[in-house]
Amino acid sequence: MKRFTSILVCLMLIGFQAIMAQDIQVSGTVTDAGGMPLPGVSIVVKGTTTGTASNVDGNFELPVPSGATLVFSSVGMKSQEIAVGSQTTIDVVLVFDIVGLDEVVVTALGITRERKSLGYATQEITGEEINKVKTDNFVNSM
Questions:
Q1: pLDDT tens-place string over residues 40-87
Q2: Angle at 71 between CA 99 and CA 35, to 5 degrees
Q3: Residue 37, beta-bridge partner list
């Protein structure tokens, strides 16, 4: 009888562990502040390598352990962390993150340095110079 009781207790503990370890299928939509869907947003379960990306319509589906936290991130947007809990649908609005770039100098070897630290002359290319388009025909330039 004692052996039967100990086996029953072990089976119950294994059953509870299996129930608690169940993944929840979480789905939702990722949009920007204007309500437009955001494709290619990275959605990762925090602390793991499990993740997915939003599709063209901003929709995603991901199996998540209960009680996990999802991290939503995209280039040019502020990252957001959301605790899943028992939710099966999560709609997220990401906000633009305005970041200015400092002056960067790229040397011939691909090493980036600050302009002040270099002992030689450098050239600067502005955005206007990059956007200038030469005409492909002499007649068009007249």
A1: 999 999 988 889 999 999 999 999 988 889 999 988 888 999 998 888
A2: 65
A3: 31
DSSP string, the chain: -HHHHHHHHHHHHHHHHHHHTPEEEEEEEEEETTS-B-TT-EEEETTSS-EEE--TTSEEEEEEETT-EEEEE-TTB--EEEE-TT-SB--EEE-B---PPPP-EE-TTS-EE-GGG-SS------HHHHH----SSTTTT-
Structure confidence by residue, pLDDT tens digits, 9-25: 656 666 555 555 568 89
